[in-house]
TrEMBL record:
This is Glycerol-3-phosphate dehydrogenase subunit C. It comes from Eilatimonas milleporae. The lineage of its organism: Bacteria, Pseudomonadati, Pseudomonadota, Alphaproteobacteria, Kordiimonadales. One of its GO terms (molecular function) is metal ion binding. InterPro entries: Cys_rich_dom. Pfam families: CCG. Keywords: 4Fe-4S, Iron, Iron-sulfur, Metal-binding, Repeat. Residues 203-286, 333-414 form the Cysteine-rich domain.
Amino acid sequence: MREGSLDAPMRHPIDWQEDDFYDEAKLDEELRRVFDICHGCRRCFNLCDSFPRLFDLIDGSDTGELDSVDSKDFKPVVNACTLCDMCFMTKCPYVPPHEFNLDFPHLMLRYRAVENKKGDVATMAKQVRKTDRNGKLGCGFSGLANWATREDNRLTRTVMETVAGIDRRAALPKYAATPFTKQAAKSMPAVNADAPAHGRKAVLYATCFANYNNTDIADAMLALLAHNGVETEVVYPECCGMPQLEAGDIAKVADKAKSVARTLAPYVAEGYSVVALVPSCALMLKQEWPLILPGDTAVKTLSEASYDAAEYIMDIAGKEGLADGLAPIGGEVTVHISCHSRAQNMGQKATQLLRLIPETKVRPVERCSGHGGAWGVETDNFETALKVGKPVVKQVTKHVAKADGPAYVVSECPLAREHIVQGMTIAEADTTNIHTGMDSGIQAFQHPIQLLAHAYGLDAPTDRETSS
Ligand code: SF4
Ligand code: SF4
């Protein structure tokens, strides 16, 4: 239990529609109030790079206190924040309802919102964050896109680094030949009427990543739901807006929240649960959207009906019980519990889920991978992303080395998983001075849901081009 307020932590709505929110003098006053508390506290020293940057900045100033720090030097502190929420959720004793009323991630968000309003966010950075537009193009020309984004394509990656600010070394998701929504429109698996959970209804909110990139994850979830008797509709109106949130474009996030909530409202009214395949997106539906649009009934109702993928499967396991048919998969699984899963306050659902697979050792790793979505592939951040992820890479490498049989490395966040595997490759290359590529002997599955489907023998069709 943490010190501070005895009441449960709560979060205030984000005042992004108020003029004061963008008042730079008031923002500076709040930054100074919060930074001063953090400097005295220092609990978050090892969570990310924001806090070490802040403490070094203040400690290295003339007086060793905040009064001699120039506000323009705050920017690197803000830039290092991935909005992972871990300081708010796991460390800070001063979050509301404590009188200090401290919400560090949302203060970083406010700083970025002010920058965005002033036009200080680079145009190309905004283009890279248009995941639906880029996803449609990427799938339409998947052969070309996947060739151009390969890490060993020096020509295109140099151009991308120069023009779009994407670090040439960063592993980028590959594009599927056909978006998942189109695949699902052609064929859906038959629902198992004998499963204990038969009668449940769910909407699979595919998310941009599973819709345009690794469609195997969505395929696996669809097969799992059908096998467990859940009548499922695949609906993906548009991206949840997490990439825009990272860039401080809160108005754009609000537009997306309204649009998705309106589309899903009829399903929710008919008793469908909404299942998101990527934890950042589940977090948006459940927590961030209602804080951005606190008066919107459709957003509120949707948030109450939303589940993370592993959370939904464990809800079935706990209430009705899962359908029969799980078989051992051999070897050992390392499962990374991502920050945005932890921020949902739901416990280690992916670990619990994987432990349902018979005779399979599961080792969880619960620490930030450092990826941070689109943030982690940007030239300014890639080194920081690798640095923050090093402890996870070390732990996972140890687990993989000990694995007796196939080594599986999965994460609730498939992007974090790829970042961890790339970190292992780079660490290996540093040690041996040989670039080993991505062939680390680790099984290709990215998401715990894929492993559960694998244990049921429900693997995705192999004739689809995916990122795995
Ligand atoms: S939200 Fe995450 S990255 Fe940002 S300051 Fe808190 S712990 Fe660090
Ligand atoms: S966010 Fe809270 S716990 Fe973390 S350093 Fe600041 S005051 Fe301390």
